Amino acid sequence: MQLIDGKKTAGDIKLELAREVEEIRKSGGRIPHLAAVLVGNDGASETYVASKVKSCEQVGFKSTLLRFEDTVSEAFLLDQIEKLNNDKDIDGFIVQLPLPDHISEHKAIEAINPRKDVDGFHPVNIGRTLIGLPSFVSATPAGILELIKRYRIETSGRHCVIIGRSNLVGRPLSILLSLKNKTGDATVTVCHSRTQNMEKITRQADILVAAIGRPGFVKGDMVKEGAVVIDVGTTRVKSDLTKSGFKLKGDVEFDEVAPKCSYITPVPGGVGPMTVVSLLRNTMLAAKGEIYPV
Amino acid sequence: MQLIDGKKTAGDIKLELAREVEEIRKSGGRIPHLAAVLVGNDGASETYVASKVKSCEQVGFKSTLLRFEDTVSEAFLLDQIEKLNNDKDIDGFIVQLPLPDHISEHKAIEAINPRKDVDGFHPVNIGRTLIGLPSFVSATPAGILELIKRYRIETSGRHCVIIGRSNLVGRPLSILLSLKNKTGDATVTVCHSRTQNMEKITRQADILVAAIGRPGFVKGDMVKEGAVVIDVGTTRVKSDLTKSGFKLKGDVEFDEVAPKCSYITPVPGGVGPMTVVSLLRNTMLAAKGEIYPV
Predict the structure, then answer these.
(1) Is A182 helix (H, G, I), strand (E, B) or coil?
(2) Which residues of chain B does A174 touch, with a Cβ-Cβ cutoff of 8 Å?
(3) Cα B13–B18–B24 angle (5° rounding)?
(4) What's the CATH number for A139-272?
(5) How far is B209 from chain A (nearest CA, A)?
(6) In chain B, which segments carry CATH 3.40.50.720?
(7) pLDDT digits (tens, 9 = 90+) for B8-64
(8) Is the minimum CB–CB distance between A293 and chain B shorter than 8 Å?
């Protein structure tokens, strides 16, 4: 059994990006610039955005944080988004979700110019992903693909079972893994809360992705000997063993499952650290015009 | 075994649409208006477009056919598309594919206003389908869903296996069948040319969709007793039995498979007749502003 070390891989990628920024700087090019829009004072959102801004600094990107009161109107926010769309110095930007109830998240996301949608949430990017065109892929699926690539895990012809059909993870990942390309060509099954005989299906998986948000859902007897297991779950559970009084638990019962695996991602330190890095990579792609040529 | 009669169902839907048009006419409303753009003189394309225009007439829609020489420039075509986008009398329009080599099909499709994209090919519509938002769904997947609905075939919790990952059929259908709704909630597996042990997977299918374009690919021993089989294939094969010298053959070896099925679509007369009807339904939805409120 080999651990897939997302923390180390994320660190490697940050170094690669930092080197690339350094080269851009030396050659007098424009430094990639990410903007983040934060509405209101949700604690978790503040933490996420702070981590994104910090990661930008670590690799040498420019970053801009736009903070607005949770009382701003939808029209005001849409206007700010339009300004970012037109700001030539901003390569990409994100609107941190959730938004206050009086603002439509779909409207906000669809207002973002797809060329600057480094979160990959705009329907144009999702649709382009589905038909195999260049697109910004959202952070978690992109991070998982990068781990599969760097650990040279074969996907072609293998049966990949994904538990969870969320718009953010399960659905886009199911598309990506079956595309006709190097990290694709898998036979893909999507399971979810309504699936019958779940364990009969998961036991067929050469690659099993758990993204259902139920801690410890995947038990040892649900996994085939030699499978690759990717655990996307990160639920806070109480713990006497940590100072904070809680710890992150994945969707996989690690102790039971790990011994049967060829590869497995731990929680924490597996998929999680890859997500911010995916956002940075998308920002670099936007700055270089690699998804949508200028 | 019960035959799923696509021809009859398509006829029923045309009658329903004709009645709806009649009511609109009586109440002094605007009659739905579909435009079709045809570039060049490809024989098959001419046949398809003629059939779409004829179907419009049958249900009482207005229709407009715009024909251009295959020598027109991409810029000219994009300009025509923009005119149709802005033409208030046109509810929806299609650009018949394929286009001549010197015109980018992606550019043409992305130039269509998603609100008028009744073919459902624009990335915005594909992306919205994936995240479960109202969208124009392309003709074949929409037609299959309609058959499933009208024949009251239960999808929830059942294992649906789709052979084929095309952008037009396999991929969008895989999304639609696993959405959280009445014609969804299925566990969905997408198989394709790189799938290993295909028959082991297809034999698990409660609902098997064959959309791979290989006549007679699905044999009797690949199908579970009692399965629902949807055959999307329509390949012309030579035949001594018809005047034209050819007949349409599906992806399913009908004689072997049918006796094992609870339901099966024949070829011809199954999925095929539903496609034009899906386009008419989308045009009606566009006219009523039901996907994108005005």
Answers:
(1) coil
(2) 174, 190
(3) 130
(4) 3.40.50.720
(5) 14
(6) 139-272
(7) 999 999 999 999 999 999 999 999 999 999 999 999 999 999 999 999 999 999 999
(8) no
Q: How far is CA A142 from CA A149, A280, A289, in A?
A: 10, 11, 18
Domain A28-113 matching CATH 2.30.30.100: the answer reads no
All residues at 6 or more sequence positions from B48 whose CB lies less than 8 Å from its CB, including other chains: B96
Q: Where in chain A is the domain with CATH 3.40.50.10860?
A: 28-113
Q: Note whether A158 contacts B: Cβ–Cβ < 8 A.
A: yes
Q: Vertex B126, ends B58 and A147: CA angle to 5°?
A: 155
Residue B192 with chain A: CB contacts under 8 Å: 178, 185, 187
pTM given for the model = 0.95
pLDDT in tens, A228-275: 999 999 999 999 988 889 999 999 999 999 999 999 999 999 999 999
* Pairwise CB contact (< 8 Å): B127 & A132: no
Distance from CA of B53 to the nearest CA of A (A): 28
Phi, psi of A64 (to 5 degrees): -135, 130
Q: Is A125's Cβ below 8 Å from some Cβ in B?
A: yes
Catalytic annotation, residues of A: 52, 96, 119
- Other Cβ atoms within 10 Å of A117 Cβ, number: 28
Q: Give A10-79 as a DSSP string.
A: HHHHHHHHHHHHHHHHHTT-PPPEEEEEEES--HHHHHHHHHHHHHHHHHT-EEEEEEE-TT--HHHHHH
Q: Does A115 touch chain B (CB under 8 A)?
A: no
ipTM of the modeled complex: 0.94
CATH T-level assignment (fold) for domain B22-115? Rossmann fold (3.40.50)
Q: Report whether A223 contacts A229 (CB < 8 A).
A: yes
Every domain range in chain B assigned CATH 3.40.50.10860: 22-115
State the pLDDT at residue B293.
81
Residues in chain B closer than 8 A to A158 (CB atoms): 196
Question: Distance between CA A144 and CA B28 in Å, rounded?
Answer: 56
**Whether B187 and A187 lie within 8 Å, measured CB to CB:** no
Interface test with chain B among A174, A200, A292, by most B beta carbons within 10 Å: A174
